[in-house]
Design goal:
Length: 210
């Protein structure tokens, strides 16, 4: 007597798509979460090559820079923000989480430099991207504790990171800092926590550009 085999259950197309999306998001978020090293290689995309210095800061020549993606959504304080409205200013994007020790280490420098540049009337806008925090309360407490006064987009699933084009200086770790020039193009990036000197070294040359 033979036993009939039960028919194999097929996974639906929509189920596979949902699974792939979840895996992609998880990979982006956990690639080097709270990492302490970055890649020194050159991207292969149309943006051209970049140079990574000994401090781990990568920069792109003005003529080779790629357009930054639109980053928009709700902020930690419940308002809305669209980074494309900030063209004309140097934009400092900092990816952070309240749970991340290197993020806590660099936060005082971001608070200090952002305040000093604002007081000096410089054309610089700071925007945080808060990720992997499961509540806005944790993120808001972090900002209050460290005196962060600029807005942060609330991005718990890391979806905003995926908007950066492949082959560009994109966010690959937490923390990451990306600086855009006044034309809204990606000019510099670091995948490690920064101090005040390193942060200013990413901003000052772009302020001086004509």
């Amino acid at each position: 007597m033979s036993l009939s085999r039960a028919p194999r259950r097929r996974r639906s197309t929509s189920g596979r798509a949902t699974l792939l999306t979840a895996v992609t998001l998880a990979s982006a978020l956990t690639l080097t979460a709270c990492g302490d090293s970055g890649s020194g290689s050159k991207p292969s995309g149309s943006a051209g090559g970049y140079v990574t210095g000994p401090s781990g800061i990568s920069t792109v020549a003005k003529g080779d820079r790629a357009e930054a993606p639109k980053l928009d959504g709700e902020t930690v304080d419940g308002k809305t923000l669209d980074t494309t409205t900030l063209k004309g200013k140097v934009v400092v994007l900092n990816v952070w989480g309240s749970w991340c020790p290197p993020c806590r280490a660099e936060a005082p420098y971001f608070a200090k430099v952002s305040k000093e540049l604002a007081d000096a009337g410089k054309d610089v806008a700071f925007v945080g991207i808060n990720t992997r925090d499961n509540s806005k309360q944790n993120a808001a407490s972090f900002e209050a504790n460290f005196g962060i006064t600029y807005p942060s987009l609330y991005d718990p699933d890391g979806k905003l990171m995926l908007r950066f084009p492949k082959g560009t200086l994109n966010a690959q770790s937490i923390p990451s800092t990306i600086v855009l020039d006044k034309e809204g193009k990606i000019a510099a990036r670091t995948l490690v926590a920064v101090n005040e000197e390193q942060l200013r070294s990413m901003i000052d040359p772009l302020l001086a550009e004509q």
